[in-house]
Amino acid sequence: MIFLVIAFILVVLPEEIGDSAANLARETVLRPVFAIQRGAIEREVRFGDAERLRAERDSLAAVLVGSAALQAENRQLRDLIGIGERLPYQFVPVEVLHVHGRGFDGGFLLTAGRDDGVVPGSPIVSGGGLVGMIRNVGARGSVGMDWTHPDFRASGMTMDGDTYGMIQPYMGRGGERLLLMTGTPFHSDLSEGTLIVTSGRAVYPRGIPIGRILGPYRDEGTWRRSYLVEPAVTLAEMNQVLVLGEPSEEAFGQDLAGAWGVRPELPGRPADPTDPTRAPEATAPGVGPVQTDPALTPPEPDAPPPAAPQPAGPRVLGEPVQPPPDDGGR
Amino acid sequence: MMFRDLQWGLVVLVAVLVALHFVLRIGYGLGELAPDLLLLSLLVTARFVKPGTAAGIGLFLGFLEGAMLPMTMGVSAVALVILGYVGGRTRKWFSDDNVVFLALYFFLGKWVYDGILFLFAGARPGMAADLLVISPLASIYAAIAGLLALFVYRKLS
Predict the structure, then answer these.
(1) Per the confidence metrics, is the pTM higher than 0.90?
(2) Which of residues 234-273 of A touch B (CB under 8 A)?
(3) Does position B107 have pLDDT exceeding 90, yes or no?
(4) Which 8-state DSSP code applies to residue A42?
(5) Domain tally for chain A?
(6) How far is CA A88 from CA A265, A300, A316, B39, in A?
(7) CATH number of the domain encompassing residue A171
(8) How far apart are CA A21 and CA B74, in angstroms?
(9) Residue from the list B63, B85, B124 with its beta carbon closest to the beta carbon of A25
(10) Predicted-complex ipTM score
């Protein structure tokens, strides 16, 4: 009976305490298991898909040759106007350790922790868009929550900023994993394929792709609507992710859409589908190849920059976070 | 029976099963392709120790499992404490030599375990299919693995 009581206490323990105990077990008794898993992942990454890596290398070489002049010019222009890197956030590249439990979804372990600069509440992103956020952090590992977790919530909006809503996980009748955008105004009429990004109003910085509208869900009465959203990042794509750190001072509140090759549209200025500088929504992250975007900031309403179309290529998402100085203050 | 006296053999068996569980399921990322050896180690142990002891072992194993599954601390522990205790009680009900009962024991143990986990996870779409289709298959898998583990243990002891 006493063991059952202890077990129930473990269940009702505050999450921080429970995860501290779990971290202790993970960093002691279970450490060899994680070492094996990391080794397996590294082997898979190193040897698993040589053809894909070769193709990526070739593509990269082609892009580098083709865009060398543009990059030099771009660098000079950035220097002139004082714009920093594409993604004005520090980040930590991390591998995801998936552990499946019956009936429990949406939690995963990450191979970086406090020692690497990861802090609780940090957004987790991938090349496709938003993955989730950091829940708890240990010294060398952390616990993340992806968009399938029942507690996941994000404030989302359309790229033009006209329609806002709350994003939450949704499981279809067939068990398909989708998102639901709730609380949008009744007069909103979002067409299929509309890109939804984070609004920057809550935990996540503005402009991270969340997904694309699949269609209306069902009216929640007479004053608001809900939409089903196809996530930008599928579960299968959550292997290598980035944990965002603190934004640089000048970049606080900046729209990150450009880092995913999506250019924010200003309200009242509908995008021209024939405009060659238009944000590549049709090839947005998670759906198709992402294009590099020459503009870091939204175009000025009075003087839209006539940026030339850019070739598809690899994204440069900023500088890896530097490990904190070893001053014993960790 | 002879192997009842070989408690160290039992300890080794349980340690191997537990290590294999984590190495296969998590270390090599096999997930449910590997049988639930953690539960099997408890069910096997419960046949040889007192119900209270089995419940204590279940608590420890459940804690380890909870440490591996993010944000589920305690749920596996509750399930394994219950199963350890009940498993220990079943010694009075049937003998270790009855293969059919042993298979049923492992099968039901796994199914009940999954049921308790689902109970804590709460209702969600697809849960019934998981519990009525996937879980029984996983339970059959566990039963076969459990019988095999017992067979090896008896041979070695």
Answers:
(1) no
(2) none
(3) yes
(4) H
(5) 1
(6) 20, 19, 11, 48
(7) 2.40.10.340
(8) 11
(9) B63
(10) 0.70
